[in-house]
Amino acid sequence: ITDGELYALYRKYDLEGNLAINTYGIEGKNTDKGYYSNGKLAYIKEFKILKGKAPIQVGKYVEYYKNGNIKVQGNYKDGKREGESLTYYENGKINDIHKGKEINFLK
After folding, report:
1. I need a surface site. Which of 4, 29, 54, 98 has the fewest CB within 10 A?
2. How far apart are CA 40 and CA 18, in angstroms?
3. 42: Cβ–Cβ under 8 A, 6 or more apart, which residues?
4. pLDDT at position 101, please?
5. DSSP labels for the chain?
6. In 3D, which of 44, 71, 42 has the Cα closest to residue 58?
């Protein structure tokens, strides 16, 4: 098996039988989606998968409020935050814009 052939499918359900986590990986890329108990999307994270190594966060990161509005969005490259990231109020209006690698997504 080569790094490009790695694949995964993982689903976790809460005690009420609702989908809580859905993970799908193929060709070295993994996408994690987390869900609130109401079925709405809680987050999306992307990872690079390498054989025998821990996953490295890459690509987009989006976190949502329970009402479905975006809470945080940004990008990762080789496990580090990269570029501009935005945080939002629950009503959907922009709260803050972060530039650079050293930011805290969770306020």
Report:
1. 54
2. 11
3. 34, 35, 36, 63, 64, 66
4. 56
5. --GGG-EEEEEEE-TTS-EEEEEEEETTEEEEEEE-TTS-EEEEEEEE--TTS--EEEEEEEEE-TTS-EEEEEEEETTEEEEEEEEE-TTS-EEEEEESS---S--
6. 44
Please give the average pLDDT of every successive group of 10 residues along the chain, which has 107 residues. 64 95 89 95 93 89 96 93 93 88 49
From 58, 41, 61, select the one nearest 49 (Cα to Cα): 58
As given in the structure block, the two tokens for residue 12 are 């976790």
> What is the reported pTM?
0.81
| 5 phi and psi angles, rounded to 5 deg | -95, -5
DSSP, res 5: G
Which two three-digit tokens encode residue 86?
């935005």
DSSP string, 69-80: -EEEEEEEETTE
Task: Report the Cα 65 to chain-centroid distance in Å.
Answer: 13
